[in-house]
Amino acid sequence: MTALPRQRVAVLGGRGKTGRAVVAALAARDTDARAIGRAEWPELVGAVGGCAAAYVIAPNLHPDEPAYVAEALAALKEADVGRVVYHSVASPYVPEMPHHLGKAVSEDLVRRSGLAWTILQPGAYLQNLDLTGPVTVPYDVHAVFGFADLPDVAEVAALVLTEEGHLGATYELASRTATVAELAAEAGVTAERGDERPEGWLGAMFAYYDQHGLPVGTRTMAALLDRLDRAGVSSG
């Protein structure tokens, strides 16, 4: 894949868990990454000025992600930032999960923004599970997920921001297919479903997980990271 000329990339949401990982992955590619947090948001046009591309990450469970993304896109256009990569989620159009729907609407805004775009749809992060001891989750531990390893997601983000061939692409990303019970067994700990479930959007998400999990294929991630020829790559 041909690399783009060296450029500066803005990472909106760059001070959170995902943003820090993306900034580090860009730095590993000798790319100047500018982490932009909420403190810089009132002066967003100036903060992204001089950048050739931007990676847009909304705060977790943002109450109005489409409005957040629309504001970001407007600032990028005003600052003449030509490319945007949007951090979405696997299976964005799921009516039972309102925060996923917000990402589906945001994806539409990105596609109609007039900017050159790429959309990443990672599955649930492996890092969201603490496997250092017994695991209790508010959904079926045997539900199937396509889990994404955060460093893998960050590496893909850096790749699509710095190499040609990804404009207009939507990539669903998972590093492996597994259940919570399987991950816990591999770590030598137990896993069980807890009795308590939070209210609101989180509760809706866990209710969906309980019934359907969140399966995501692994081939796209493996192909992007050139791992298809390695032993043990899932065909999911």
Task: Tell me what the structure shows.
There is one protein chain. The protein is α/β, with parallel strands linked by helices. It has one domain: NAD(P)-binding Rossmann-like Domain (Rossmann fold). The protein is about 35% helix and about 20% strand. The protein has 8 helices and 10 strands. The strands form 3 sheets. It has a 6-stranded parallel sheet, sandwiched between helices. The chain has a two-stranded parallel sheet with strand order 6-10. Helix 1 links the parallel strand 1 and strand 2. The relative contact order is 0.15. The C terminus is likely disordered.
Q: Structural class of the secondary elements?
A: alpha/beta
Care to count the β-strands?
Answer: 10
Q: Note the quaternary state here.
A: single chain
| Strand residue percentage | 15-25%
The tally of structural domains comes to 1
Within CATH, the superfamily carries the name NAD(P)-binding Rossmann-like Domain
CATH fold-level assignment: Rossmann fold
Characterize the overall form: globular
Low-confidence stretches: 230-236
- Encode the helix/strand succession as letters: EHEHEHEHEEEHEEHEHH
CATH class: Alpha Beta
Strand order within the widest sheet? 2-1-3-4-5-8
Structure annotation, total helices: 8
Q: Considering DSSP H and I runs of 4 or more, what fraction of the residues is helical?
A: 25-40%
**Averaging pLDDT over every residue, what do you get?**
93
Cα-to-Cα separation, first versus last residue: 25 Å
Biggest sheet details: 6 strands, parallel
CATH architecture: 3-Layer(aba) Sandwich
Query: Compute the gyration radius: what is it?
Result: 18 Å
